[in-house]
């Protein structure tokens, strides 16, 4: 992302940036009519929602057990939580042991080591005793969370819900979504869009922590730089004709963003700020270059419910398909086809909405070539980083990608 070697985003992280732009579309269309409101005082975030096997976690302090009994745990306290026959058994881990020992199964069968269970309950609640948050270790991942943590036994594992203030949530999301060494003006631009998404959530809303929503990785990502950026933009929002805009963003436009109507059709009709802008500020993105993937013709036809290989029959001025023809002369929008392929095959097969579908080869394999990452409407995240590096302000960046809007 920067011209300095070593500051480039790794593809996996860049892919996360891409994915972060997907849910924005889905979330926003549902809640656009709502007016601006204060950030929710509390959100319930299901953390580690994508972890398939949440059967055992470790906790480190400082924290306070609120339910079913009250107890204070100091900073050096470490506990193990395991689902044992439908109940969560919490035991202290002795301080000389690493947080995650290799004798997990032995511990489980013996009752998590030598200490008796502190509690054995279907549900318990912890609260962070400081702004550093409570530490949670799942496998090799260690993260810290502010607010309260509700642990609930489900099946053979557990669900962990972090009850966190809207403000702390936004701080973490901006830091979790941003590339490392992200310039502060780009962070500020991301903060405005994130605040606008979170504004619309009702108090106590339950959401996930993955890119299906916005990426949320806890307190460690709310760095001092991120906190400064969010605080400076806390009361600023982006308006067009006196109304709040739909804060669409994506990872990489790879040459230009698209008109909203080219991608979202009538959903974006009349939104004059969702207009094509030429962008060559995202060249440092790994998605700037074209990517070619293979898929079998049979699979592609199955995904799009077509007897024939889809043909692109209309493109917008940036080369993104607007419409594809399927069997029976049916049509599907380029965006809808892209969503179907992504949901079925994962988003790295066709990362961006600017794509080409070749004719099948002799083996029935089809090459799909794409450039960019994400839907291609609104703010280009890599471009925002590029513009910030050229000295542009958050205001400049936002009004560049959302023409005719005002930050106020
Ligand atoms: Zn761009």
Description of the structure:
With 408 residues, the chain is an alpha+beta fold. The protein has 3 domains: 11-42 and 167-282 and 376-407, no CATH class; 44-164, Tumour Suppressor Smad4, CATH 2.60.200; 291-371, no CATH class. Helix content is 26%, strand content 28%. It has helices at 11-30, 104-110, 166-177, 184-199, 224-232, 260-264, 297-303, 334-345, 381-389, 394-401; strands spanning 43-47, 56-60, 63-67, 71-73, 78-84, 87-92, 119-121, 123-128, 134-138, 141-145, 148-154, 157-164, 206-208, 238-240, 243-244, 249-250, 255-256, 278-279, 291-296, 311-315, 321-325, 331-333, 354-357, 365-371, 379-380, 406-407. The strands form 7 sheets. Strands 4-3-8-11-12-1-13 form a 7-stranded mixed β-sheet. The protein has a 6-stranded antiparallel β-sheet with strand order 7-6-5-2-9-10, with no helix packed on it. It has a 3-stranded antiparallel β-sheet with strand order 15-14-26. Helix 4 packs across helix 5 (224-232). The two termini are 28 Å apart. The model is unreliable at 1-36 and 101-113 (pLDDT under 50).
């Amino acid at each position: 992302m920067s011209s300095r070697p070593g500051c480039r985003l790794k593809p996996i992280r860049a892919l996360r940036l891409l994915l972060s732009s997907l849910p924005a579309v889905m979330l926003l269309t549902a809640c656009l009519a709502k007016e601006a409101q204060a950030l929710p005082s509390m959100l319930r975030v299901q953390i580690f929602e994508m972890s398939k096997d949440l059967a055992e976690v470790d906790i480190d302090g400082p924290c306070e057990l609120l339910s079913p009994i009250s107890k204070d745990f100091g900073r050096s306290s470490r506990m193990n939580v395991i689902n044992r026959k439908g109940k969560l058994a919490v035991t202290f881990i002795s301080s000389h042991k690493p947080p995650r020992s290799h004798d997990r199964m032995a511990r489980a069968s013996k009752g998590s080591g030598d200490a008796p269970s502190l509690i054995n309950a279907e549900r318990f609640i912890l609260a962070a005793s400081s702004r550093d948050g409570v530490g949670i270790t799942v496998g090799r991942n260690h993260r810290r969370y502010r607010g309260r943590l509700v642990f609930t036994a489900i099946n053979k594992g557990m669900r962990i819900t972090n009850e966190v203030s809207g403000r702390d949530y936004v701080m973490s999301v901006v830091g979790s979504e941003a590339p490392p060494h992200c310039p502060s003006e780009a962070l500020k631009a991301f903060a405005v869009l994130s605040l606008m998404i979170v504004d619309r959530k009702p108090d106590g809303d339950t959401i996930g922590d993955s890119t299906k929503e916005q990426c949320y990785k806890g307190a460690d990502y709310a760095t001092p730089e991120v906190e400064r950026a969010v605080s400076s933009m806390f009361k600023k929002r982006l308006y067009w004709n006196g109304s709040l805009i739909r804060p669409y963003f994506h990872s990489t436009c790879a040459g230009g963003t698209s008109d909203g109507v080219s991608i979202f059709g009538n959903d974006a009709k009349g939104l004059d700020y969702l207009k094509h802008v030429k962008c060559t500020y995202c060249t440092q993105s790994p998605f700037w270059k074209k990517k070619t993937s293979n898929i079998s013709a049979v699979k592609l036809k199955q995904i799009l419910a077509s007897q024939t290989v889809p043909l692109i029959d209309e493109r917008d001025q940036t080369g993104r398909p607007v419409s594809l023809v399927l069997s029976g002369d049916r049509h599907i929008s380029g965006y809808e086809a892209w969503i179907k392929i992504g949901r079925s095959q994962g988003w790295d097969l066709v990362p961006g909405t600017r794509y080409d579908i070749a004719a099948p080869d002799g083996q029935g394999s089809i090459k799909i070539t794409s450039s960019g990452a994400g839907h291609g409407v609104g703010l280009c995240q890599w471009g925002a980083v590029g513009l910030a590096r050229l000295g542009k302000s958050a205001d400049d960046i936002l009004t560049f990608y959302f023409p005719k809007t005002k930050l106020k």
